[in-house]
Specification:
- The protein is of the alpha/beta class.
- The protein has three domains: about 10-105 and about 175-460, Glycosidases (TIM Barrel); about 110-160, Oligo-1,6-glucosidase, Domain 2 (Oligo-1,6-glucosidase, domain 2, Alpha-Beta Complex), CATH 3.90.400.10; about 480-570, Golgi alpha-mannosidase II (Immunoglobulin-like), CATH 2.60.40.1180.
- Helices cover about 30% and strands about 15% of the residues.
- It is built from 20 helices and 21 strands.
- Strand 14 and strand 15 form a beta hairpin.
- The longest helix has 17 residues, at about 175-190.
- The protein is globular and about 80 Å long.
């Protein structure tokens, strides 16, 4: 693998609306991010992904962009953005902008002009179709529910929107549109940002001409996942984007790609891939159902382990995934992946260790480092989220009552990750002096950054240890580039793997069970791990991380306490 400047970094995602508010309007802002840069530096963050702060009517919380080269006033000004880039760089932190180019806002000047003159040049920037006899061009279902086609006023023209109706899809088949996008991207890169997180990018290639697919619900529509399986040729667009933007700037790019085909992974993240990395979503899509959230099944520890290991095997020798347990579109990872008995500090450290030590670029989402949890929403009116409102109606249509529907929404809603950051135990968790735009989780008095910064045994302190290990000169090459070798996969509730480097190995052990388990050294030896070298590592104190006070080695067995996570450094015999 060709080594890159970003390989050893730890990344952090900020959802600006909920991070830190400096002017008391209840909405986080750019000055709030600037004010907390020292917190991020102390944590060890070197790449900062900022969710959209562009001018927007906020039909989908800023992912509907009306002007790519303007900052929305609720977040501040372009001068604030310039200062953020400079202040971050002074602290060794690189900025990633969120790139949303599958669609824009219906208030973008391009779309306004397209609606005024559908057959003019800007009409070619979108997918506009003239409809006769009320027959829509295809029966695709929007990600937010309903048909993907929306009528333009009282005309016979309709436009395509795979997401919200205020998010018309951009026509990537038009080379003029693509060049407009590349100019905008280079404008930002020339400003000094380090790259982009690329939103919903798999959607830019549609299977054309438009046609119907078999319906999968009573609404007569078809899920977009099925539709996109037929889309071919996306790499022509993505390689062009790379060549005209990322490559000349040595920029970092990470794609949101949910349904890449196995054989295409080198095209995405290989040395000549279109992106630096893509997110590993295998765990987040596990158990999901096209019927809706009410039919989904949360992955247990063994399913989580299987998903992680399948991805690690796929990426071996190809490139690096970006690893997550949560983001702005998912519920909180500790509430989603951990069994009920494990939702405590010990269990949260366990999940942190087993995900963070995998090969790849670790991404933290704001509040993850302090163990923020899901909320119990009592009413759909408490959520300002189009997808949650759609899924709530799906639950009701499926026969659930309002209480049952809200239980589903509380478990799966992305509103969980968008509740304001819990800075301290003061009013509103220290997020704002005004009324927060979204409810603050009531547990902010117990879970907040201030209390954990003072506690060397806190989850926040544990994340700092994980990040320091990634930078440790003795171990960093193995942590960053070492092969991932799953071990003892058949042991239920145990997630164990080896990171094998040239001169050393790192053994990661995580016991998700509520009971103590025994790991015989002979079984590890069958997996190629030297029992003597492991015993020597334990005796000599090369326990690089441990969420318990001790790691018990009794005779020829390791004993792992309930929810114990341990990271052990093993030296090769000749070193």
């Amino acid at each position: 693998m060709e080594k890159k400047w970003w390989h050893g970094k730890t990344a952090y995602q900020i959802y600006p609306k909920s991070f830190y508010d400096t002017n008391g309007d209840g909405i986080g802002d750019l000055k709030g991010i600037i004010e907390k840069l020292d917190y991020l530096k102390e944590l060890g963050i070197e790449i900062l992904w900022i969710s959209p702060v562009y001018l927007s009517p906020f039909a989908d919380q800023g992912y509907d962009i009306a002007d790519y080269c303007a900052i929305d006033p609720i977040f501040g000004t372009m001068e604030d953005m310039d200062r953020l880039i400079a202040e971050a760089k002074a602290r060794g932190i690189e900025i990633l902008m969120d790139l949303v180019v599958n669609h824009c806002s219906d208030e973008h000047p391009w779309f306004v002009e397209a609606c005024r003159n559908p057959e003019g040049p800007y009409g070619q920037y979108f997918y506009l179709q003239k409809v006769e006899d009320g027959k829509l061009p295809c029966n695709w279902r929007s990600y937010f529910g309903g048909p993907v086609w929306e009528r333009i006023g009282q005309t016979d023209w309709y436009y395509l929107h795979l997401f919200h109706k205020k998010q018309p899809d951009l026509n990537w088949e038009n080379p003029k549109l693509r060049q407009e996008i590349y100019r905008m991207m280079n404008w930002w890169l020339d400003k000094g940002i380090a790259g982009f997180r690329i939103d919903a990018i798999i959607n830019i290639k549609k299977p054309l001409p438009f046609r119907d697919y078999p319906a999968d619900r009573e609404d007569g529509l078809c899920d977009m996942g099925t539709v996109l399986e037929d889309a071919k040729g996306i790499m022509e667009f993505l390689d062009e984007m790379r060549d005209q933007t990322f490559s000349p700037h040595d920029a970092f790019s990470v794609g949101e790609v949910f349904n890449d085909r196995k054989e295409e992974l080198p095209d995405y993240i290989g040395d000549e891939g279109c992106f630096s990395s893509i997110f590993d979503f295998s765990q987040t899509v596990e158990g999901k159902s096209p019927l809706g959230w009410y039919a989904c099944k949360r992955p247990g520890p063994d399913a989580y382990k299987r998903c992680c290991f399948e991805s690690q095997r796929r990426a071996q020798g190809v490139g690096l995934f970006s690893n997550i347990i949560e983001n702005h579109d998912e519920p909180r990872g500790v509430s989603y992946y951990l069994p009920d008995y494990a939702r405590n500090v010990k269990g949260k450290k366990l999940l942190a260790a087993v995900y963070f030590m995998l090969k790849g670029l670790p991404f933290l989402y704001q509040g993850q480092e302090i163990g923020m949890e899901n909320m119990e929403f009592s009413s759909i009116e408490e959520l300002d989220d189009v997808s949650s409102r759609f899924e709530y109606q799906v639950c009701l249509d499926a026969g659930l009552d309002e209480r049952e529907a809200m239980k589903v929404i509380s478990q799966y809603s992305r509103g969980n990750s968008r509740t304001p950051f819990q800075w301290d135990d003061s009013a509103n968790g220290g997020f704002t002096t005004g009324k927060p735009w979204l409810l603050v989780n009531p547990n902010y008095r117990e879970i907040n950054a201030a209390s954990q910064e003072r506690d060397p045994d806190s989850l926040l302190s544990f994340y700092k240890q994980l990040i320091r290990l990634r930078k440790d000169p003795q171990w960093k090459d193995t942590v960053i580039y070492g092969e991932t070798l799953p071990v003892l996969e058949e042991m239920s509730g145990l997630m164990a793997y080896l990171r094998r480097g040239e001169k050393q190995e790192i053994l990661v052990l995580g016991n998700f069970n509520s009971q103590e388990i025994t790991v015989p050294l002979k079984r590890l030896e069958k997996e190629g791990i030297s029992g003597e070298a492991l015993k020597e590592a334990v005796r000599e104190g090369r326990i690089l991380l441990n969420n318990c006070e001790t790691l018990s080695l009794e005779g020829e067995s390791l004993r792992l306490q309930p929810l114990q996570a341990a990271v052990i450094g093993i030296m090769h015999k000749n070193d």
